[in-house]
Design a protein that fits this description.
mainly alpha; Growth Hormone, Chain: A; 2 domains; 20 helices; globular
């Protein structure tokens, strides 16, 4: 009796994936893009729009609110680590549904704030769930479903981030003007629930293997463990590094530092942008134009770095992004006219986008997919913490000296050393268990 013909991966599909005539990873990519968009209410560009109307009604000082925002963001940096571990355990579908639900509740909580402790809890929650968890889950989904095309796929999710940065400040202004800031927070909660929950329940699947397909929709191809953006055959497998194994590699700590300067310095420069421009003799209107220039430049650099990440060793791209930040900082010291402020915004936005995509891609490229939630949870926590700490030294320096020039020069050493760290972060050798498996396969 003849043995039955083996079924192809697509013949094992069921449910919605079986009705999609193309690789289901593109549906996951669209879901991740929506997740990035829905992270908007937890980002600084949304919280800043609420600040003045909230302070006006509650009668609190800007210093106190800024301190609570920093404290909440630092708390979020700790909590995101645990979210990464849960993501590895339960998968993106469950975590997106849970985080989306709780994120909406946190936004409703913000509408009830009447005490500083409530504001701290609210900031910690929306930073953990929005800026941290939603971004972590979305980028991890893309890393799970794409390997060969990971850079380009990650860059496409940037459309969600850019869309959120453009849309939410305008929506919040409208809601606050027409309904007040408390109802505006509730409106954001409804938007998050409407976007995230249907996507999580109906579209997201845990991994390509869970529905019987392979990443990128490709057949398995043996690759030589080398240094391009693509992952080696051993690390690209479903095994990869555990968090403990990754933390025992030198590259883990080098990458953690190499990705921190953009979060710390970029956030500080944007947070103090109006004040900084005033010290350079540039009007307030230039700050608004500069911010509007940053978004499209960041988006364009995300696409460029996403394409290059699949072609060029990722550590080189990360070093380039750090040097771009250093150039932006040096240029900032020359500003004395509006056009120079606009160039500064373009340089800062371009380096930020380059860093964002490269750091999202390099972690799964180096450490595999199986435990990438835990690994990127640590990386995301570091970036959130750096962003929270960044504005403080710049503000202190201004209070002491009445200028930002000295602190910019002092912090110029950071992107330079981050670039060196990136260049030294060679792809780690596969863990011993992986090498053993690889040798049996070969």
């Amino acid at each position: 009796m003849a043995s039955p013909t083996p079924k192809s991966p697509r013949s094992r599909l069921s449910g919605l994936p079986s009705r999609i005539p193309f690789f289901y990873g593109w549906v996951i990519l669209a879901s991740a893009t929506l997740g990035m968009f829905a992270s908007g209410p937890g980002q600084t560009f949304s919280a800043s729009v609420f600040l003045d109307p909230m302070l006006e009604e509650l009668g609190w000082s800007r210093t106190m609110a800024s301190g609570l925002y920093t404290a909440g963001s630092l708390t979020a940096a700790v909590l995101v680590v645990f979210v990464g571990r849960l993501l590895d355990k339960y998968g993106a579908r469950v975590m997106m549904a849970v985080v989306g639900t709780v994120f909406g509740i946190a936004l409703v909580w913000m509408s009830t704030v009447n005490h500083p402790i409530q504001l701290y809890i609210g900031y910690a929650a929306i930073r953990t769930l929005g800026q941290g968890s939603m971004v972590l889950i979305s980028t991890t989904m893309v890393a799970m479903w794409f390997v060969r095309m990971r850079g380009r796929a990650t860059a496409l999710t940037a459309l969600g981030s850019a869309g959120g940065q453009i849309s939410f400040p305008l929506l919040i202004h409208f809601f606050v003007d027409d309904f007040g800031w408390r109802w505006a927070w509730i409106a954001l909660a409804i938007i998050v629930w409407v976007i995230v929950l249907p996507v999580a329940v109906f579209l997201i699947r845990r991994s390509p293997e869970s529905i019987g397909v392979l990443p990128d929709g490709d057949r398995p191809v043996a690759t030589t463990p080398s240094e391009p953006g693509a992952v080696s055959a051993t690390v690209a497998s479903s095994e990869g590094f555990t968090l403990k194994q990754a933390m025992h590699t030198r590259s883990f700590w080098l990458l953690l530092y190499a990705g921190s300067s953009q979060s710390l310095i970029g956030t500080a420069l944007v947070f103090h942008l109006i004040s900084f421009f005033e010290t350079r003799g540039v009007g307030d209107g230039a700050a608004a134009v500069t911010l509007s220039i940053m978004a499209p430049l960041a988006l364009s650099s995300m696409f460029i770095s996403g394409y290059l990440s699949d072609k060029i060793p990722n550590r080189y791209l990360l070093a380039v992004s750090q040097m771009g930040l250093a150039i932006a900082m040096l240029w900032a010291l020359t500003i004395d006219a509006n056009w120079q402020a606009y160039v500064f915004g373009g340089l800062l936005g371009f380096s930020a986008g380059f860093t964002m995509t490269t750091t999202a891609v390099i972690w799964p490229n180096y450490y595999g997919r199986a435990h990438i939630g835990s690994i990127r949870g640590i990386a995301t926590a570091g970036m959130v913490a750096a962003a929270a700490l960044g504005p403080l030294p710049f503000g202190i320096a201004f209070d002491l000296a009445g200028s930002y020039s000295t602190v910019i020069l002092v912090f110029l050493v950071m992107p330079i050393t981050c670039a060196i760290a990136a260049l030294l972060a060679h792809p780690p050798a596969a863990p011993v268990s992986e090498l053993a498996v690889g040798s049996r396969i070969e």
